Amino acid sequence: MTVERIHSDSCELNQSIVRLLDGKVNAVCIGSSGNSEEKQRTILPGAFDPLHNGHLKMAKIAQHVTGVAVEFELSVLNVEKPALELTAIESRISQFGDQQTVWLTKSATFEAKSDIFRRTTFVVGTDTIVRIADAGYYDRDQEKCKAAINRIIRNDCRFLVFGRTAPKGFTTLRELALPRELCEICTEVSEEEFREDISSSMLRDKDENRHS
To answer: Above 80 in pLDDT, residue 7?
Structure first.
């Protein structure tokens, strides 16, 4: 894994993001975590559009559960959306404090994330863990889906799963029908421990309505 340490200089940050977008590096680290490939990590991936209190609460609980400081990961690529432009990347990074570590990657899938961040616990919601087991995200190929899950397992990665509000109500891990192999690498955070009905999309909708 090729990793770059980024400090406060905006020019250096821009250059490193460009290197990532050009495919010259596969991850850029903003913060003080260093570039050790072997250390265990706890990573909370997201679009952070915007970063909100729910993300921060999840990070706090995840650190308590795993005993490892939580780092954040922002992929500039998304399976369902266009790639982020430089200005959008910079804007989302600016939401984090100096003491928070943020990784920038081009890893849109957890299979790809696990190749970069081995021995990692990924912090996700039930909406995300369901997609990992959905063949629709693998060209409707169930074998590709199984292969992706097996690759995540071989990379010694796990998931810490938080409940999320869905159309049918608040959904927790135990209510999901997931493949046994995926279930075995998942740990649930109960509704009693965490329930936050706010989401980035809700905040964006409120902001749009306020300015309309």
So the answer is: no
